[in-house]
Design brief:
Number of strands: 35
Oligomer: single chain
Shape: globular
Number of helices: 5
Distance between the termini: 34 Å
Helix content: under 10%
Largest sheet: 16 strands, mixed
Length: 499
């Protein structure tokens, strides 16, 4: 039964439109009737609560969250035509009990523009020391750009569909933002990612974003054209940068650091890239271009690492929420007809460097024909350079698949993936000593940037046409020896941060 006090408050909020200046001590979460159907013009209740706690709250107005601390309850939709602006320094805590998530629908806009000194933080409501992956849902942004499936249902459970024909669509700004402990598994195998982009257009600004301890992928793109720079994926559960359904944006300067005790049952990768789930040859293809990426794998952060499910036990942040642990796989897995491109990057300490998987579609022909480019990439401390099949850890050639879909191996030859990698311009299997990395001056916990004199500092090339619109630098990987773009706004111990 709805509280009369709550309903009266909602009516007043609709009239005044300035609920953050008002006060309501009622903690009733039964809901606002028009938040389900017509949409509510008021987003904040009780002074600091966003949403009403159910999974159907629709915000249809325009509102600014002044700097402060807020509690996000339930699934809050930013509807077509609505705009939410968040001031720098704001902290938004996701409510665990209501599986909180913020969903920007096509035509809606989120302006979350922090600064290096005052980042905007989305984090767990749990007390420090008790925060875990999957404490709340995450952020989903959907737009009207193209994908290769038409209008798509967004992954993770929300009602929202995305996709259209406007590649220049604008969903707002996400800049100097941290997203921590997201990925609540509201159903089995249906987690929300840290940040999900569904058909987001290149009119949207995305830069300086850190996703930490997510219970699924740190970032996932389903179609769209949005570009991004300066991304950090820190100790996520599944994949770091997952690209699907014709994503064609350009992404530059990214740092990925794994936790050796956290990997997903599906096998965790740095890149996981598909054209679509069945590998169909359909336009627009997944042709995203990444440059200046640094992958720090589990072996690089843990000298005692073992790629077994006994060792990979979740460690101190195991959430015990039904999410299944598994093993680590590859720095880069490209499959199902994806034409992903990567340049000027380094990857360290994974069981496998590269998988070009041909079980569905023909990713290997795309590579052979120059439709998929991997150049100026250095690997170090991999168990094997390449593998040709999912969940296969041997560098041997896969010649096809049997009637049960199992790989057929030719153990007399090395994998297509390793031979392709080594044949590409500028690629190299290196050693950690040769890379000459440092980074002890920060709290990242491992060396991640080139020291003075490192050969990485002069190894880049930007002659390929796919890189024409990207920032041209002399170095490969995400950093040079001096410019440390993660300083100031990032947090590498969010379990114990004071929020």
């Amino acid at each position: 039964m709805k509280s009369k006090k709550f309903l009266n408050w909602a009516f007043i909020a609709l009239l005044c439109g300035a609920v953050t200046a008002c006060n309501n001590d009622d903690d009733n979460n039964d809901g606002v009737d028009d938040g389900k159907d017509q949409g509510s013009s008021s987003l904040v209740f009780d002074g600091n609560v966003i949403g009403n706690g159910d999974q159907e709250f629709v915000f249809s107005g325009k509102e600014t969250l002044t700097q402060g601390t807020y509690l996000l309850k339930g699934w809050v939709y930013i509807a077509d035509g609505a705009e939410l602006t968040i001031e720098p320094g704001t902290i938004i805590k996701g409510d665990k009990q209501t599986k909180a998530a913020l969903i920007v629908e096509p035509g809606g806009k989120l302006y979350a523009q922090g600064t290096a000194d005052k980042p905007i933080v989305f984090t767990s409501e749990e007390a420090k020391g008790n925060r875990r992956p999957g404490d709340w849902g995450g952020i989903i942004i959907c737009g009207n750009a193209r994908n290769n499936q038409g209008q798509m249902q967004i992954e993770g459970g929300p009602r929202t569909k995305h996709g259209g024909s406007n590649d220049a669509d604008n969903s707002g700004i996400i800049s100097y933002v941290r997203v921590e402990f997201a990925g609540y598994p509201f159903e089995r195998d249906k987690e929300i990612n840290g940040v999900t982009f569904g058909s987001v257009g290149n009119g949207t600004q995305v830069d300086h974003v850190q996703v930490s301890y997510c219970n699924d992928d740190s970032y996932e793109w389903f179609g769209g054209t949005v570009n991004a720079k300066y991304l950090v994926a820190y100790k996520g559960w599944d994949d770091e940068f997952d690209t699907d359904n014709g994503f064609s944006g350009k992404v530059q300067f990214c740092l990925s650091v794994r936790d050796s005790r956290i990997a997903d049952t599906s096998q965790s990768n740095g890149f996981e890239s598909d054209n679509c789930a069945d590998g169909a040859a359909i336009d627009p293809y997944t042709t995203a271009t990444f440059s200046n990426i640094t992958f720090i794998g589990p072996k690089a952060v843990d000298a005692n690492f073992e790629n077994t499910t006994d060792y990979i036990n979740g460690g101190e942040v195991y959430p015990n929420n039904g999410s299944a642990l598994g093993r680590f796989q590859a720095a880069m897995q490209i499959r199902r007809n994806s034409r992903l491109n990567c340049f000027n990057s380094i990857a360290i300490g994974y069981p496998i460097g590269l998988i070009l998987d041909n079980q569905k579609g023909d990713t290997q022909s795309a590579a052979t024909n120059g439709l998929l480019k991997l150049q100026n990439i250095w690997f170090a401390d991999m168990d094997v350079t390449g593998s040709d099949a999912n969940k296969s850890y041997d560098d041997v050639l896969v010649t096809g698949y049997d009637g049960d879909g199992k790989p057929i191996y030719d153990n007399t030859q090395t994998s297509f993936s390793s031979r392709f990698f080594l044949a590409q311009s500028g690629n190299k299997v290196s050693t950690l000593d040769e890379m000459n990395l440092s980074g002890a001056e920060t709290s990242v916990g491992t060396n991640y940037r080139p020291a003075a004199g490192s050969p990485l500092l002069s190894a880049a090339s930007f002659t390929d046409g796919k890189l024409a619109s990207m920032q041209q630098v002399s170095y490969i990987g995400a950093f040079d020896a001096n410019d440390n773009w993660i300083d100031g706004w990032t947090e590498f111990d969010p379990q114990n941060a004071d929020y």
